[in-house]
Amino acid sequence: xxxxxxxxxxxxxxxxxxxxxxxxxxxxxxxxxxxxxxxxxxxxxxxxxxxxxxxxxxxxxxxxxxxxxxxxxxxxxxxxxxxxxxxxxxxxxxxxxxxxxxxxxxxxxxxxxxxxxxxxxxxxxxxxxxxxxxxxxxxxxxxxxxxxxxxxxxxxxxxxxxxxxxxxxxxxxxxxxxxxxxxxxxxxxxxxxxxxxxxxxxxxxxxxxxxxxxxxxxxxxxxxxxxxxxxxxxxxxxxxxxxxxxxxxxxxxxxxxxxxxxxxxxxxxxxxxxxxxxxxxxxxxxxxxxxxxxxxxxxxxxxxxxxxxxxxxxxxxxxxxxxxxxxxxxxxxxxxxxxxxxxxxxxxxxxxxxxxxxxxxxxxxxxxxxxxxxxxxxxxxxxxxxxxxxxxxxxxxxxxxxxxxxxxxxxxxxxxxxxxxxxxxxxxxxxx
Length: 432
Known about the structure:
Elements: E1 2-4, E2 11-13, E3 15-18, H1 22-31, E4 35-38, E5 52-55, E6 62-66, E7 71-75, H2 80-88, E8 92-93, H3 105-111, H4 118-121, E9 128-134, E10 140-144, H5 149-155, E11 164-171, E12 173-174, E13 179-187, H6 190-199, E14 205-210, E15 222-229, E16 243-244, H7 256-269, E17 273-278, H8 279-283, E18 289-290, E19 301-309, H9 310-327, E20 334-339, E21 353-361, H10 364-379, E22 383-384, H11 394-400, H12 404-414, H13 423-427
Parallel strand pairs: 3-5, 4-5, 16-18
Antiparallel strand pairs: 1-2, 6-7, 7-11, 8-12, 9-10, 9-11, 13-15, 13-17, 14-15, 14-20, 19-21, 19-22, 20-21
Helix pairs in contact: 9-10
């Protein structure tokens, strides 16, 4: 069947294998090659694509839960939506969440996802106490900071290349309520936006939207959203999408003119001030639309997300925005976040600095632009997020992920024949 990531690029012919027992998973891994794990297929590019996709969706059980110790053990196919809803009854929640609730625990670990609170809480992997993985021999291995720590540090952030994650034990935090106090501040340009981030860096949650169409004088103007969880009796319940986009829009629907109109409208419709919003709306605004990715047309799109160290962040992001305008290419979904320190997971994306993510319609010209942006990121000592990547070159990857050699030593130890690989790992020269 034809399968793609969330960006609808690339599209490949592959088989999704779904097994209902651990024994079946072990047997499948022993008998097959070129395997990669898959969950809800929300990774944007080709990191979860290959000939054989071993789905985790049937592994959707909670195995153990101790609310007093604030720990839960669940299978890798449990979705964030289901887990958050379950935990809400106990006034607990997961510490870190990305911009969609439609991802699995296994995918969150493999990508070492981050959220609007990375500057304070770190990545999701930092809250994983232990996990179990099926290796290339079909054997189950327990991993943690104290048991097989090498495999643990390679598996968290390892993009599914070390084995198949069965389940994990995750540390939890208290949930005040379903409500977030949101403070909105409009920034007149990039300088102003960075000043606001630094001023409010102690806030619990922070994220900003940037207008990529603003003129040179106002380049980088945007809207900063600050949030903090507040106490109330409102019960948290995450819902299914309320709107469905049942078909692909024409490929050129999102062009420079329409995106510019959307950007301008969005900037002016957001007013500075404080209001109370629902957890779902604050963290997952796009989840209200099912299949929103179809808005980019059948040709698809790619998300370009990078991070650069704090000392280079302003200059690098300013150059990126200017380069986009030079190419006449815009992005409506453009998100800037402040990130905290690095962690010890070998292929983890975050570093202390700023990350910018842009959804860009796929075209020959936009792919040429991405190569130019790569040069800016490389010269700024930054890197590109593997979970969002669909087109980075091997050269850029090996120059920006400094722990790749250590990662490969551990992968070879547990998977010497590269049983676990993806289109991305082959493209980047991680596997042959």
